[in-house]
Amino acid sequence: MRIAYFSPLSPIKSGVSHYSEELLPLLQEEFDIDLIIDDYQPTNKEITSRFETINYLRYDWLLKERGYDMNIYQLGNNPYHVYIYNTLKKYPGIVVLHEGMLHHMIRALTIPFFDEASYYRELKENHGEEGEKVAKLVLSGLGSNLLYFLYPCFRRAVELSLGVIVHNQYLKDLVERECPDVPVSFVPMGIKPSEKRDGRKLKEALGLSDSYIISSFGLFSEMKGARTILNIFAHFHSLYPNSYFFIVGEVSNELPLDSMLAERGISNKVRTTGFVEKETYEDIIAITDVALNLRYPTGGETSASLLRLMSAGKPVITSNLGQFRELPDDTVIKIDPGKYEEMELFYTLELLYWRPDLRQAYGERAREYIIKNHPLEKEVEGYISFIKELKDKSKRELAKAQRRVARERAKFAKKLYHERLSQLADFQNINHPYPEIIKRAISELGIGGRGKEE
């Protein structure tokens, strides 16, 4: 069976690159795979020596020449996936939806190129007339990340697909609710077991042998608790001067990190690495005493960095919402978003500081959970089963399912509209970084309080 596999690869700075490079060698044992990429040269020699990598601009010709049996689209919420989304519009296939949020990718596809008409069309096709109102707000400068999370723009990608793979039950439920006739398979994300590294020796080599290291992995942004984390770390460091905070990954362009650190007096105690290669990434995991993986709101993404931290036996503090609630309470420490979040985070960090036995216990249970529930081989089995299931369905049945989705839209549109109005109104009561923008957006949408069904 011949597969066209669409995904970013190294050196593209995306977690999906690393994800695909771990998955592909095992998938290759079952399928004949070509890798369809954007306009760059892949750098992972293990991948380039085993697979043919082809510029997506040649795909039309390749399809006629090679007759692929199935396309697999790794779809995420950033500009690296624009070419994938554009190809999906022409050629259906299996979408691996890494999060229930594609609005930022849709913006990257349209607004920077002054293509307002396409942005309006995407919002309308994903969210109906309500989406057109949101597009108007965004294009008039009243957009915000919170608004994008309320209007995530993943419906069209799902409806264009033959079926969808997701990595947690929360996202599966969300997709099935929006697109009830599209097949969805929950395949737990697979993680290679982390090698045990001597964190003490690595700390000594860095001159940090007596330090207490708190780390955050992945994009550092407002939506991932940046302001809360820095507030609490500043207070924590004033009491525990041997503490350091490592930001491992890119920092959001919207976050004025240097000034935020200077205002809190912690510039020399916060280390930023930018995007790092695998070896450095795993070294920093090894020296980490406690990791933070916060979200608010959530796009339903399964955090690969969280699973890797758990696999390495590290205690992780995460948010008690959405997909994170699926993790057992004895494997991660969950804190509630909202007005008590900072207090909970501080006292949890302090408790773990004084209780290395508790850190070890959480880390050991986390590692055991990942080994049992997230082996890479189990993920590959899920892919193979779903691919073969969809390949066996007739094209006529698939076409009928897609037409049913369109008819169902009207049935769900009114209910979803009022629910989103209610959610947006609720944001007024949350301590978040965009109060004035959200209030103006609420006013523009004509929301005086909770939405009520007419």
| Tally of distinct domains | 2
Largest sheet: 7 strands, parallel
User: Any idea what the shape is?
Assistant: globular
CATH class group of the largest domain: Alpha Beta
**The CATH topology of the largest domain is what?**
Rossmann fold
CA radius of gyration: 22 Å
Mean pLDDT: 89
What is the count of β-strands? 13
Tags for this entry?
13% strand; Rossmann fold; 6-stranded parallel β-sheet; 454 residues; 13 strands; 51% helix; alpha/beta; 7-stranded parallel β-sheet
Summarize the structure.
It is built from 19 helices and 13 strands. The chain is an alpha/beta fold and 454 residues long.
Describe the structure.
The protein folds into 2 domains: 2-190 and 379-445, Glycogen Phosphorylase B (Rossmann fold), CATH 3.40.50; 199-373, Rossmann fold (3-Layer(aba) Sandwich). It has helices at residues 15-27, 45-50, 59-66, 82-90, 103-110, 116-142, 145-150, 155-160, 169-178, 199-205, 226-239, 257-264, 278-287, 304-311, 341-354, 356-373, 376-392, 395-426, 435-445; strands at 2-6, 32-37, 52-55, 70-75, 94-97, 163-166, 184-186, 212-217, 243-248, 270-274, 290-293, 316-319, 333-335. The strands form 2 sheets. The chain has a 7-stranded parallel beta sheet with strand order 3-2-1-4-5-6-7, sandwiched between helices. Strands 10-9-8-11-12-13 form a 6-stranded parallel beta sheet, sandwiched between helices. Helix 1 crosses helix 17 (376-392) and helix 5 (103-110) crosses helix 6. Helix 9 links the parallel strand 6 (163-166) and strand 7. The chain is of the alpha/beta class and 454 residues long. The radius of gyration is 22 Å and the shape is globular. It has 19 helices and 13 strands. It starts with a strand and ends in a 9-residue tail after the last helix. Helices cover 51% and strands 13% of the residues.
